[in-house]
Design brief:
alpha+beta, Alpha-Beta Plaits, 2 helices, 4 strands
């Protein structure tokens, strides 16, 4: 039996500066993130994440971590 692992996307909201730069929201090819009222990103489509790492690699403050 094959096991499919869903990605786990962790956002460190203490480090996050998305109010100023919404890089993760803008660059994600799978539209995994949505902007909250606070301006911070929220994971809304984790099941669509293809684990490309674009958000993690481009976050200027390393506030995103993707794992399985």
């Amino acid at each position: 039996m094959d096991v499919i692992k869903m990605p786990r996307i962790i956002i460190d909201y203490v480090k996050c500066i998305a109010e100023e730069e919404k890089i993760c929201i803008e660059l994600c090819p799978a539209a995994v993130f949505q902007c909250e009222e606070s301006g911070k990103p929220k994971v809304v489509n984790a099941n669509k994440c293809n684990m490309c790492g674009v958000c993690q690699a481009n976050c200027p403050v390393q506030a995103i971590m993707i794992s399985t």
